[in-house]
Design brief:
Length: about 675
């Protein structure tokens, strides 16, 4: 028997220790608030079992009185702790179901029973520990065990509904163990001559197991009469203390295991939360990277568009690049650009991107979609909503059978006047956002700037043509026209000399006329050579200069040497290349007309570092030289300086009488990060 008491106390002590340790560790699970009461109940039950073990031994008789008093105190205290624990477990899942309304009645009836039997209990001569033990079990331990068992069964049902079968199984075992505890501990009590204990105890059948009195009692009390220790002993051949030990071990096993499983689940939940947090952080980091990449892509595209515009690329090429960028960056299936036709007052499709290519529209394609026209006529922008009728997006996408299901449209404005519309569409229902509309408006601004620069470029080209015509007219006036006028006068002089018979003077005049014709012929050939000099992407600056010098040397019989020290790309803006050729032509014209030179050297080389490179053009002749203030070349030099300054360059002239002339002009290169494909430029 001592071993049974020892293991029963050891089981409850383990239960109390496990609850205490779990309480120290913390956590958030259904039994968290009941851990202090569970620990106290376990330690109290363990102490009671070990007191019974010492009382059952014969070696500590001197302490029996003290241990008996301690047991009298612990017995109802254990029941009270179990009552509190059972009620807490029962109500831990929220409000109780309606059927639990009978619980107060169940609790009141035993108390009424106590009052009825109180006088009998304390009048009957018996040790005080017997009624304390009996009524502690009936009034405290029994309802507490039942409530705890029902509470664990509620936990079983709840955890099974949450998809936690391992916890649900342990809750079911703990509920069954507490109900078994209610039977073997709360109902089976010591024998006493009053109340249920008079017929429902574990000593009754020991004294009259097979007597007629026992049989009569069974007949009188029915179920209570045969649920006694003797029947259990006859069936199991084991005493009730053994079954109480089994009950203690079962309660401890299932409750401790449930605490461990709850802890494991809590760790699993914490790990899941940590994984979710890490995943959220990863997603946020990836979103930041994606946002930064998107911003960089947009920045690169907008900067590239601006550079193309500043480099005076062909407007159609810039527009194609813009709509391709819009289709790619805004993940669109169709992008269209329509321009107002001033003659017909209609919006006509200018260019579009459909699929993986973009192209200009050669023929007139009117744009009749109401949404596009409405956006064009009013100030503002538009993007489709989720509840918008599908027919409103009809005819948004051109040259495709697929209808648009989401669209965004902005108006193009130049000098506060609407000039066109720019829109994009998707074939799926993925709607555009406010941010997409802002980016589309940015691209629309770039389109407007490109068109404005295109108009300015056209005006500049017209101005250049006008300027070149003025220059040719001036040179023809100063050269060919004067020579022809001179020849006209000389022909009249020849007629007079011929009539007078002055042949010597006639011959002299013919020589002068021949020299004037040669000069006029040289001027005309030089003008033709200048007009034939072409800069384009296939030829480039250096081949054009080399070709011009070769032709110049043949025409003028001046030894023209070209020294090219540039081994890589020239990297000059297109206008700077044009002005460089103009300056070279003007300088060589001065050499031919005024320097009386037999040799001229043209040298191209680079100076500066990689970030601030310059192209240098140096023209040296071995002619007579000049003084600037007295030279006929002053007007031409002033023109060359103005040409150099127009492209942020500078021009220097070094000359002395009898020592030839050196002209050097310097042009800044385009930085490496700003290089663009140059447009085709014809002079």
């Amino acid at each position: 028997m001592m071993i049974i008491y020892f293991f029963a106390g050891l089981s409850f002590g383990g239960l109390g220790l496990a609850a205490y340790l779990q309480m120290r560790r913390g956590g958030d699970f259904p039994l968290r608030k009941e851990l202090p009461w569970l620990a106290a109940f376990g330690f109290a039950c363990a102490t009671t079992a070990w007191i019974d073990m010492f009382l059952a031994s014969s070696g500590m008789s001197s302490l029996n009185h003290f241990l008996s008093i301690l047991r009298i105190v612990l017995q109802p205290l254990t029941g009270l702790l179990l009552i509190k624990l059972g009620w807490g477990i029962l109500t831990s899942l929220g409000p109780l179901p309606s059927w639990t309304i009978f619980i107060p009645g169940v609790l009141i009836v035993p108390f009424a029973y106590v009052i009825a039997y109180a006088s009998t209990t304390f009048i009957t001569p018996s040790p005080i520990e017997i009624p304390v033990d009996i009524w502690s079990r009936y009034l405290l331990y029994l309802p507490g065990s039942i409530m705890a068992g029902i509470g664990f069964l509620r936990q079983w049902h709840t955890q099974a509904g949450r998809g936690l079968p391992d916890v649900a199984t342990l809750m079911l075992g703990a509920g069954a163990a507490f109900l078994f505890e209610a039977f073997v501990v709360g109902l089976v009590v010591p024998a006493a001559p009053y109340g249920p204990a008079s017929y429902y105890n574990y000593d009754r059948v020991v004294t009259n197991a097979f007597s007629g009195e026992g049989n009569a009692a069974r007949g009188v009390f029915g179920l209570s009469a045969w649920l006694d220790y003797q029947q259990i002993l006859e069936i199991t051949h084991l005493p009730i203390e053994f079954w109480r030990m089994i009950s203690a071990i079962a309660v401890t096993f299932f409750v401790v295991r449930s605490l461990d499983v709850f802890d494991a689940i809590q760790k699993r939940i914490v790990k899941a939360l940590q994984d979710e947090r890490d995943r959220a952080q990863r997603n946020a980091f990836e979103a930041q990277i994606a946002a930064r990449e998107t911003a960089e892509s947009w920045t690169d595209a907008l900067v590239d568009i601006s550079r193309r515009i500043s480099e005076l690329d062909d407007v159609d090429t810039i527009l194609i690049y813009i709509i391709e960028s819009a289709r790619h960056l805004l993940r669109s299936d169709f992008v269209g650009l329509a321009i107002l036709n001033a003659d017909t007052a209609l919006l006509e499709l200018k260019c579009f991107a459909n699929g993986h290519h973009a192209e200009m529209v050669d023929s007139s394609v009117p744009v009749a979609n109401p949404l596009i026209l409405d956006t064009f006529h009013r100030a503002g922008s538009y993007y489709s909503q989720a509840n918008e009728p599908a027919d409103q997006l009809a005819h948004v996408c051109f040259f495709t059978a697929q209808p648009g299901r989401a669209a965004a449209i902005v108006r193009l404005t130049l000098d506060n006047r609407p000039i066109g519309a720019f829109w994009m569409a998707r074939f799926n229902a993925d709607l555009y956002s406010d941010t997409d509309l802002i980016w589309l408006e940015c691209l629309a601004d770039q389109i407007t700037i490109a068109i404005k620069h295109g108009l300015a470029t056209s005006q500049l080209q017209l101005l250049s043509v006008t300027e070149e015509r003025t220059r040719i007219a001036r040179e023809m006036h100063d050269g060919l026209a004067q020579v022809l006028g001179y020849l006209n006068l000389q022909v009249q002089t020849l007629d007079a000399l011929l009539e007078q018979g002055k042949l010597d003077k006639l011959q002299e005049k013919l020589k002068q006329m021949h020299e004037a014709v040669k000069i006029a012929h040289a001027d005309v050939r030089e003008n033709i050579l200048s007009l034939r000099t072409t800069l384009d992407d296939k030829k480039g600056l250096i081949p054009a200069v080399n070709e011009y010098l070769h032709e110049f040397g043949i025409q003028t019989m001046i030894d023209a040497e070209f020294v090219n020290e540039i081994v890589d790309e020239v990297n000059l803006p297109s206008l700077a290349e044009v002005q460089l050729v103009y300056i070279l032509q003007e300088a060589l014209s001065n050499v031919r007309k005024h320097a009386h030179s037999s040799h001229v050297t043209v040298r191209l080389f680079k100076t500066g570092n990689t970030r601030e490179e310059c192209i240098n053009l140096q023209i040296c002749d071995d002619g007579v030289g000049f003084v600037s203030s007295e030279s006929k070349r002053s007007f031409g030099l002033q023109t060359m300086r103005e040409r150099a300054r127009s492209v942020n360059g500078e021009l220097l002239v070094h000359s002395a009488i009898g020592k030839g002339t050196q002209i050097e002009c310097r042009f800044p290169c385009v930085p490496p990060d700003k290089l663009l494909r140059k447009s085709t430029i014809f002079r």
